[in-house]
Amino acid sequence: MLNVPSDLEESSTQVRNEWKNIVSSDLEFSREDDVNDFIAPDNFPRLEKTAERDNFVLVEFEMQPNNKKAFYVGKVLLYENKEYEINFLLCRNKTFGQFAFPDVADILRVPETSNKVRLPTPRKLGCAKRRQSYMSFGVDFNLLNIL
């Protein structure tokens, strides 16, 4: 059995504790930074201008009977009479923010007030043919009930 001097054990324990403090403070700092990067579901920035054809938007719906909010991502097809005609996407992977158009188009007219955020232009994902239909917006949707 190896005999380690007690002062060496103390310094080793002290270093370990200091490291834990540094790591935990870094985690707290990064969590605070991450939280500031999210858009809260109840506090969306006001849309500055009307979304145009081929823009992607985040649309809010109130689900019955509990009035819980659900969000969908869609592509604007038409805007008239303060209503949007939107082709909705399927959320393929919420964690990584991956979306794709469904096999059968899911088109619906929604009031202008339901559009919450105009999303950035998506980028196509994947190299394989079946994955090329996936797209990502570079936005973190984890705080939202994306369906």
Describe this structure as you would to a colleague.
The protein has 147 residues and is α+β, with helices and mostly antiparallel strands. The protein has a domain of 80 residues. The protein is 22% helix and 33% strand. It has 1 helix and 9 strands; from the N terminus they run H-E-E-E-E-E-E-E-E-E. Strand 1 and strand 2 form a beta hairpin. The longest helix has 32 residues.
Count of individual helical segments: 1
- Provide the succession of SSEs: HEEEEEEEEE
What is the general shape? Answer: globular
Main sheet specs: 5 strands, antiparallel
Percent helix range: 10-25%
The low-pLDDT segments are 19-37
Structural class: alpha+beta
Mean of all residue-level pLDDT scores: 73
- What gap, in angstroms, lies between the N and C termini? 60 Å
For the largest beta sheet, what order do the strands appear in spatially? 6-3-2-1-7
> How large, in whole angstroms, is the Cα Rg?
23 Å
Question: Based on DSSP secondary structure assignment, what is the total number of beta strands?
Answer: 9
Determine the strand fraction and express it as a percent band: 25-35%
Topology:
Layout lengths: L5 H32 L18 E8 L4 E13 L2 E6 L1 E4 L4 E3 L6 E5 L3 E5 L3 E2 L10 E2 L11
Antiparallel strand pairs: 1-2, 1-7, 2-3, 3-6, 4-5, 5-9, 8-9
Which labels suit this protein?
147 residues; alpha+beta; 5-stranded antiparallel sheet; 4-stranded antiparallel sheet; globular
